[in-house]
Amino acid sequence: MLDVVDMVTAYDVVVAGGGPAGAATALRLAGSGFSVALLERSRFDRPRVGETLAPSIQPLLQGLGVWERFVALGPLPSWGTRSIWSSTAPAAHSHLETGYGSGWHVDRRLFDRMLCDAAAAAGTSVSLGTSLIDCRYDGRWQLTCSNGHRLTARVLIDATGRSATIGRSLGARRIAFDRLVGITAQWSGVDVSAEQYLLIESVPDGWWYTAPLPGHVMVGMLMTDADICRHHNLAASAPWRNHLESTTATALRVDSATCLPTTPRVYSAASHRLVRPGDIRPWLAVGDAALAVDPISGSGVPRALRTAEAAATTAARLLTHPADAIPLTTYESTRNTECTTYLSTRADYYAIALPHPTPFWTRRQLTAAS
Ligand SMILES: Cc1cc2nc3c(=O)[nH]c(=O)nc-3n(C[C@H](O)[C@H](O)[C@H](O)COP(=O)(O)OP(=O)(O)OC[C@H]3O[C@@H](n4cnc5c(N)ncnc54)[C@H](O)[C@@H]3O)c2cc1C
């Protein structure tokens, strides 16, 4: 299905973004016989966040046919979650009750790279270190990559994550629901053998998340709002470490670290929904680009893989029945329903907590009430 015309390479589908959502969408479409190109801006050589995978990831990886590749990465089993949320005593939730036995703590560079490798093995043309920088539609997508290559596609997939760069450049509107950020650093040389669980601890400015990673590493992350981060300069090493010292259980987890944490990095963790009223051009947003959720839900990566399945089915239908706009409408309305359900679940999470009369918690109380 692939032809080369005047140095422009033609594909059925071009996917921009090689995170879990983009790689899984490409893998499914290539596996169904379509010609697919996957463009990924990075080379998976920098740390990536989202390291704790819920037990529900197992059937999704099995459905993609990548379970053996996943196990070969040597992920750490995650036995459950402990949360210091609305009282000082940790509440424990075991993954043994889920039917899958455990969740997983992974190095996201390796995990995301593994999914891209699987997409390539299924026949996807994968370009790392390559961004999609321009797209126009004239009955076919005319696409320009950062390396100067030009591609055409019948269907375009925006899998660029929270930035939703492609969809927004096409005129879709991002509705933001909060200003959450994650300020994260890692410690190496930590004995994590007795620490294979996710710990969440609420503090006046937000909440801390700590989780072990393969290779005797612990990752720590302060989740707060962007304005609070700026006001207290929490992205700088010393204030971030002082803040950690104010916790009860979180700081104890990294007591055995043989070195200081890495310099903190700030990631947007804001929830948003990308809406595209009335646009029937053949493009779809998938994963965080379509709907980005609060990491408190622990559902980011499983959700990305689930929407990839829906996006692949919709894209396949657009390719085989180009005059039929119903699949696009159905896809968007399912994402809207997903968004409504998510907002109600998020309100429930924060309603359990509310332990501090501070802006971070008061904002969430107001959101839950509205
Ligand atoms: C602080 C934080 C903590 C989190 N913790 C968890 C967790 O513990 N568990 C969990 O399940 N989820 C967690 N998440 C959410 C999870 O990381 C995301 O839901 C998941 O990565 C979404 O996958 P995605 O493929 O949609 O987007 P991403 O993983 O963001 O991938 C998007 C990709 O697109 C690429 N890209 C961007 N623009 C372009 C372009 N123009 N051209 C080509 N490529 C481009 C980027 O380089 C990136 O690789 C967390 C998120 C944050 C912010």
Rg, rounded, reads: 21 Å
Quaternary state, please? single chain
For the record, what CATH class of the largest domain applies? Alpha Beta
Q: Can you name the CATH architecture of the largest domain?
A: 3-Layer(bba) Sandwich
- The unreliable regions are 1-6
End-to-end Cα distance, whole Å, is 51 Å
By secondary-structure content and strand pairing, the structural class works out as alpha+beta
Please tally the helical runs, counting DSSP H or I stretches of 4 or more residues: 11
- Number of DSSP E strands: 21
The percentage helix is 25-40%
Average pLDDT value? Answer: 92
Shape assignment: globular
Quickly count the domains. Answer: 2
What kind of sheet is the major sheet? Answer: 8 strands, mixed
CATH homologous superfamily assignment of the largest domain: FAD/NAD(P)-binding domain
CATH fold title of the largest domain: FAD/NAD(P)-binding domain
Protein name: Flavin-dependent dehydrogenase
Domain FAD-binding: 11-336
Family: Belongs to the flavin-dependent halogenase family. Bacterial tryptophan halogenase subfamily.
Organism: Kribbella pratensis
